[in-house]
Amino acid sequence: MIATQLGASHLQFLLQGALWTVVLSAIALVGGGLLGFLVALCRVSASRAVRIASGVYVQVVQGTPLLVIMFLVFFGLPPLGINVSPLTAASASLILYVSAYMGEIWRGCIESVPKPQWEAAECRR
C-alpha cells in the first residue's frame, strides 16, 4: 500500500477548485435567475405558442442530464464554427440548466396566487 501525503500543492489545488466552484455557482445563480425569470413569464404568458415553446424548453432541459448539456455545448458548438472556452461552456450549460428549474419554481409560485389576490392588486384608490 502506497501512502500519500497531503502537501501544500494539494491544498492549493483543492482551494483553487473550491474557488472555481463558488464562481461557477454564482454565475449559474445570477444568469439562471435572470433567464429563469423570463422562462417563468413565458410559462404564464397569454400566448399559447409562447407557453408551449417555453414548456418544451423546460421539458427538454429537465429531461437531459447536466453532463450531456455540458458535452453538447463544449463539443457541439466548435463544429458549427463557435469556439468556446471551458469556462464559457460550463457557465452557459449551468445557466441553461438552472433557468429551467428556477423558471418552473417561479411559475408555480405565480400560479399559486389566488385570482382574488390578483384582482385586489390591480385595484386603485
List key phrases describing it.
single chain, 125 residues, mainly alpha, 5 helices, 0% strand
Overview of this protein structure:
This protein has helices spanning 8-43, 48-62, 66-76, 86-111, 115-122. It is elongated and about 65 Å long. With 125 residues, the protein is mainly alpha-helical. It is built from five helices and no strands. Helix 1 (8-43) packs antiparallel against helix 2 (48-62) and helix 1 crosses helix 4 (86-111).
Please render the helix and strand layout as text.
Layout: H1 8-43, H2 48-62, H3 66-76, H4 86-111, H5 115-122
Q: Helix-strand pattern, N to C?
A: HHHHH
Number of helices: 5
What general form does the structure show?
elongated
In terms of per-residue confidence, which ranges show pLDDT below 50 for 5 or more consecutive residues?
none
Q: How large is the radius of gyration? A: 20 Å
Mean pLDDT across residues: 92
Largest sheet: none
Beta-strand content: under 5%
Relative helix content: over 70%
Q: Which structural class do you get from the secondary structure elements?
A: mainly alpha
Count of individual beta strands: 0
